[in-house]
Amino acid sequence: MKKILSIAVLALSFLALAGCGGGSSAVDDPHHDDYVPELRVFDIIDSYDTDTAIPKHAPLALTPYRYDGLYEVFWKVNSLEDYRVTLRINDRPVLAGSLAIHSQVCGAGRRCDQDGSWICEYTNDFYMSCDGSTLEKDIYPLIAKVPQLVYLFLEVCDSNSGYCEYDYYPVTLE
């Protein structure tokens, strides 16, 4: 009898808690539990006007001889707090060992908030920079031969924790 009473009390407790609406869903709260930034969109327009926002786009390529080596980077992030966005390059599809090309803090009241874009440059002496920065990153250590397949990463990191997430595209450097 005590077992049945215990099971009944447990069942009623569960029903009472379930009726309180204590659970949440993605519809109720689109943010992560810790309110870390979520990278929703990362797109590139390359030297040949190939746009990754267009489904089934051609392979990406950068050349310093078209449009003066300019290419564009776009992103959208879902974040309630400030975050750091960084463009990186590597000769393999992993973030470890990648080189940071450009970085910026984004958030409410800043130049970039939930989205942003940079115009970046790839030079014929293997340097990259973005957004008019005078700091150019030497990418020559990643280049074995030209054309060279590399990977461009966009990484977003929470300003208050070590949480980061990223996406990348394979790109041929000419």
Summarize, please:
This protein has 174 residues and is mostly beta strands.
Word description of this protein:
- The protein has 174 residues and is mainly β.
- It is built from 1 helix and 10 strands, in the order H-E-E-E-E-E-E-E-E-E-E.
- The protein has one helix at 2-19, and strands at residues 38-45, 60-62, 70-78, 83-90, 99-106, 115-122, 127-130, 137-138, 148-158, 164-173.
- It has a 5-stranded antiparallel sheet with strand order 1-3-6-7-8, with no helix packed on it. It has a 5-stranded mixed sheet with strand order 2-10-9-4-5, with no helix packed on it.
- The longest helix is centred in the N-terminal third of the chain and has 18 residues, at 2-19.
Main β-sheet description:
5 strands, antiparallel
Report the order of strands and helices: HEEEEEEEEEE
Placed side by side, the strands forming the largest sheet appear as: 1-3-6-7-8
The mean pLDDT is 84
Beta-strand residue percentage:
35-45%
Total E-strand runs: 10
Q: What's the total helix number?
A: 1
Percent helix, as a range, is 10-25%
Radius of gyration from the alpha-carbon trace, in angstroms = 23 Å
Structural class: mainly beta
